[in-house]
Amino acid sequence: MIKKINWNLKFEIDSNQEQIFDLAFEGTLDNTLEAVIKYKKNNKKINSNLIYEIISPKKNKLTDLRKFLSNKNITSKINKIEEKNWVEFSNRLRSEIVIGKFKIFSYTSNDLIYTKSQLPISINFNNGFGTGQHSTTQGCLIAFDKINKNRKFKNILEIGTGSGILSIALKKLFNSTVTSTESDMQAYQASISNFEVNKIDKKISLFNQSSISNSNIIKNSPYDLIVANILANPIIKFSNQIHDISKKKTILILSGFNYGQHLRIINKYRYLGFIYIMHINLNNWITLILEKRKLI
Q: Do 89 and 43 lie in a common domain?
């Protein structure tokens, strides 16, 4: 909870820059002390400019960000503000997101209205680690919907769980054994909190570590579904380990990279026995679905 915040950096951008700024802020700000508020300048215009407000107790940090924005010819202003719980305020501004079977709410919502065919997910909409708004997260959720049509999974692993949104979705959709791993301590704590809100904290094994060589992760293998929404380089770095903890017909869902990087990843995993099934392209962010056909 944010209880003492003193400074507000406010600026305006064109709507087509939204994805770039959202990605830039994920992991950049302190998950427990800072928050990003984003809203349309004109709600009546589809492509309205966006207003960002970054709330932080660290004026020096906001000053550095202001210099960065200035270099990009973006005008910004820093103001001193009154004490306020800005994370809670930001959550109230966010509307729910519907992606396939999943309906994602702010954790502050009092009336979670959803149909019997929808799976509700309650998430803290703060600055980072996965709120369902980024194309990579949405691509993974769409992929879950697609593979759910003809496959059932008993043993699932998510690498880089972030806010926990994908692990929550996997648990609610497949009702299977789910193991998750996250290296960033703030994201790890965010996952724990979101697991508790969704009442699945005792149903998911979560590990705080920077690799997938943990003995418990290896012990729980092989997995029949592995999900990694991280970046291209660690996805390639972990390829041999992912091969070792998978089995024939394991489905692999990979995201966190752009169109220009996806062929390199497909080729890397093809040599390990994974074949391309399909890809999802959202705003040039790619989500891959692969299947292990050969035991190499």
A: yes
- Chain centroid to Cα 264, Å, comes to 22
8 Å CB contact between 185 and 115: no
Q: Prior bond to 222 cis, omega within 30?
A: yes
The C-alpha atoms of residue 74 and residue 69 are separated, in whole angstroms, by 5
Is the model's pLDDT at 250 over the cut of 70? yes
Asked if the structure places residue 281 within a domain, the reply is yes
At 270 the pLDDT is 93
3-state secondary structure of 48: coil
pTM: predicted TM-score of the whole model, two decimal places: 0.69
Length of the chain: 296
Rounded CA separation 193/255 (Å): 24
Q: Residue 162 is which amino acid?
A: G
* 177 in a structural domain: yes
Dmax (CA) of the chain: 61
Same domain, 144 and 182: yes
- Residues 143-182 have pLDDT tens digits of 999 999 888 999 999 998 888 899 999 999 999 999 999 8
Residue 12's pLDDT band (boundaries 50, 70, 90)? very high
Tell me if 1 is assigned to some domain: no
Residue 2 lies in a domain: no
Query: Which domain, by its residues, includes 46?
Result: 7-93
- Is residue 118 a contact partner of residue 98, using CB atoms and an 8 Å limit? yes
Q: Which of the two residues, 88 and 155, has the higher pLDDT score?
A: 155
Burial class for 267, CB neighbours closer than 10 Å (0-12, 13-18, 19+):
exposed
Domain count of the fold of the chain: 2
Q: 90 with 18: CB under 8 angstroms?
A: no
Angle at the Cα of 33 from the Cα atoms of 31 and 35, rounded to 5 degrees: 65
Distance between CA atoms of 137 and 3, rounded to whole angstroms? Answer: 29
Residue 20 has pLDDT above 90, yes or no: no
Same domain, 119 and 241: yes
Which residues lie across from 120 on neighbouring strands?
103
